[in-house]
Amino acid sequence: MFNEIVKADINKSSTAEKKKVYFKFIEVLPIIALLIAITLHLVIPNKQSFTTTKYYPTLLKAFIIIYFILLVSSTKVKKIFDILVNKGPLLTVAVILLELWDIVTLKLKLLPLPYFPGPDKVLSTLVSDWSLLGISTLYSLRLLFTGYIIGAILGLITGISTGWNQRANYWIGPLQKIIGPIPATAWIPIALTIFPTSFWASVFIIVLGVWFPVTVMTSSGIANVQNSFFEVAKALGANKRYLIFKVAIPAAFPTIFIGLFMGLGTSFLTLIVSEMLGVKAGLGWYINWAQGWADYSKVYASLIVIGVIFSSIITLLFKVKDKVLVWQRGLIKW
Amino acid sequence: MVNSNGGVIKIRDVRRVFKDLSGNDTVALEKVSIDINPGEFVSLVGPSGCGKSTLLRLITGLDKANEGELYLDDDKITAPHYERGLVFQNPTLFPWLNVYDNVAAGLKARKIYNEKKEEVAEFIKLVGLEGFEKSYPHQLSGGMAQRVSLARSLVNHPKVLLLDEPLGALDAFTRMQMQDEILRLWKERGTTMVLVTHDVDEAIYLSDRIVIMSPRPGKVEEIIDVKLPRPRQRNYPDFLRLRSKILETLNFAKEIDSYYL
Predict the structure, then answer these.
(1) Which of A304, B68, B147, B182 could form a disulfide with B127 if both were Cys (CB 3.0 to 4.6 A apart)?
(2) Nearest beta carbon to residue B84 from set A228, A235, A247
(3) Which residue of B has its CA nearest to A329?
(4) What is the pLDDT of residues B26-48, one digit of tens each?
(5) Which of A228, A236, A246 faces B156 most closely, judged by CB atoms?
(6) Residue-range domains of chain B with CATH
(7) Domain residue ranges of chain A, discontinuous segments joined by +
């Protein structure tokens, strides 16, 4: 409700000040940094003995063009103006760091090869090896989602039963206390012998890693639901089913979500480790394989891909949370 | 007032004992017997520890008596039932549901929402919260939240509405407004009302009868008929006379355990 009021306010002021031209010097800083970066890159001679491509300067040029368009439109559109003013300093520092990386590697060769290639080399690897990286990403995502979804569902089932039912807690609780704390990756040798394929072995490991935090948080979330909610619901005519699914679970969802979030973090870790150790595909395998060839530009390229993908998945989870938890403010911010 | 909507409550020789931490028995209620007529407004008043909230929980069915029986009409009370609506001091709205869905919760829990959908809007209107259907509980003021809580109970057409200090958390002004609101709902619906309160003025302003309870063990000290015509004026001599009479009776209770008043 509050947001709408603010939005309405902004709309009002932007129609009232339609003629106004927005401008602040701070907005221009990123473009200045970009211009300096591209100049330094073109002027300073290379010391690393890579064959250079045009990828890095092209990327910088693309940034300059995009940012210039944004800058021009920001003089008219208040929303873009606000974003640029807000993000201006951050973008400037990001560009400076990017160019520093270029200088200490490609230009001055202050860091040893092959461990520290420059941005141009990493970029060209991203472009030239995209098909293998893409396939590896798809393999990783398939493994991640299979494991995460099974683990989360099992975690919710055990968490809800142990949080709700004393007898379930009596039998499952101790199992959860002993098996849960074992790092999922410690199961790799056993998983690889039990399961017919390394894929299902890895699914098993990810499931274990996700299951534990989801179970613990769900269970404690359900067990800690304010008793008065149940009392009121009973007085409204609720049966057991309603108490579990319409009272306990929604009331516990903020805590359940923390478990789902923690489980996601564990699943990323176990995914990469199990791909490095057993599975013959995926981004973890790709990193290991690139390291074997001492091709560190590929390692960096895959790290960038992993960063972008995993970050997007977490963003997705938080979007789902915002939808489900409109009634709550705060919780963990992403 | 003759009303077919309200239920009869019979409380027969009820005794409720709690064990404290060291395992000793504390008698919360001893031989309590009260009859509440259909459509009657009854308040339970008394110092802390007199067992008035315990008695209300027994009528709700959330707690069980060690001895004695409670009845709604001719049915023995054993568990919570939608015929006995409940409103706490804390509105206890479901924070994950908006106002509309909170009010609809009872109908949905009883799986009659599809047939009785229109009533949700009707009861939201009854408590004066049209336009707030989409608001979430954290966006409501204390008085508004308590209105939603009332509507949520009333949508089930309870025979009895049990109010456990429903206005205790509100400021004095909102409190008086809500007292009139409760009176209006009571007159319109004809529901039997049982109110637990600390506030003697509130009890006199609202009730047909006031049950004064004394602590340790909690028992009925006196039942006072309030014969003042409605709408009642808080500063009329009769009102004030009744007030001092009740306070005197409570003072008697206070002598027993002065710390708890």
Answers:
(1) B147
(2) A235
(3) B138
(4) 888 888 889 998 989 999 998 88
(5) A236
(6) 41-62+79-213+221-260 (3.40.50.300)
(7) 2-128, 130-324
